Amino acid sequence: MGMIEIDPMELKVQAADIWLNKWFVLTAGTIEKCNCMTVGWGSFGVMWGKPFTQVVVRPGRYTYEFMEKSDSFTLCSFEDKYKKDVALLGTKSGRDGDKISETGLTLTKSRKVNSPCFNESDLIIECKKIYWQDMEPENFLDKSIFEKYPLKDFHRIYFGEILSVRGEKEFYI
Ligand SMILES: Cc1cc2nc3c(=O)[nH]c(=O)nc-3n(C[C@H](O)[C@H](O)[C@H](O)COP(=O)(O)O)c2cc1C
Q1: Protein residue with least CA distance to atom 4, ligand 1
Q2: Residue 149 CA to chain centroid, in angstroms?
Q3: Which residues line ligand 1 (CB under 6 A)?
Q4: What residue spans of the chain are helical by DSSP H?
Q5: pLDDT by residue (tens digit) across 111-146?
Q6: Residues 118, 124: contact at Cβ < 8 Å?
């Protein structure tokens, strides 16, 4: 069928499964200079009347530097045949070399934001950064959350307003 434009308010995803099992590649920067990494935690919803996605990035990630400098980011998901490539982007750091060139994935310009996306994606979500906040450990009511932070590298939370969605049929029917 191929990729079609989807109204951000009409995007259909399995709320937990898409993050936990399908994963996304988060990319920030420009097509000339960007970095990307795999993300498995996040959410979609509505905030301040806008469709948004929320991602969380630990400060040690190279992608964090690009998230800070950029006014946008993209989230791309992929069919299972690209799982190994997506896993590589989530285990190697762009600090140590051009990890994208070690995969079968190729960057392309986005429609509405500067941060690029991937030609091979089955779902491309383009976002404008609208809010950030650092996680505050004193607010962890469930103490088991501390187990996720042995290095105390608490995530920075970013909200992105969804400006454009393109995806395969499963994401709009
Ligand atoms: C399945 C999976 C999910 C991940 N989810 C996140 C996440 O939500 N936030 C985060 O900071 N790191 C996450 N990571 C770790 C980063 O993707 C990983 O550290 C990556 O190598 C960072 O690359 P960079 O240094 O080029 O930014 C995840 C890794 C995998 C494999």
Answers
A1: 39
A2: 20
A3: 23, 35, 37-41, 56-58, 61-63, 87, 90-95
A4: 17, 62-69, 83-89
A5: 999 999 999 999 999 999 999 999 999 999 999 999
A6: yes
Residue 22: strand, helix, or coil = helix
Phi/psi at 52 (5° precision): -145, 160
Q: Which two tokens stand for residue 87?
A: 């896993």
Whole-number Å distance between alpha carbons of 167 and 101:
24
List the chain domain ranges. 4-171
The whole-angstrom separation of Cα 125 and Cα 123 is: 7
**Residue 13 is encoded by which pair of tokens?**
């995803």
CATH superfamily of 4-171: Electron Transport, Fmn-binding Protein; Chain A (2.30.110.10)
Residues counted in the chain: 173
DSSP, res 142: S
Q: Cα of 1 to ligand 1 centre, how many Å?
A: 31
pLDDT, tens digit (0-9, with 9 covering 90-100), for 42-85: 999 999 999 999 999 999 999 999 999 999 999 999 999 999 99
* Spatial separation of the C-alpha atoms in residues 72 and 146, rounded to whole Å: 29
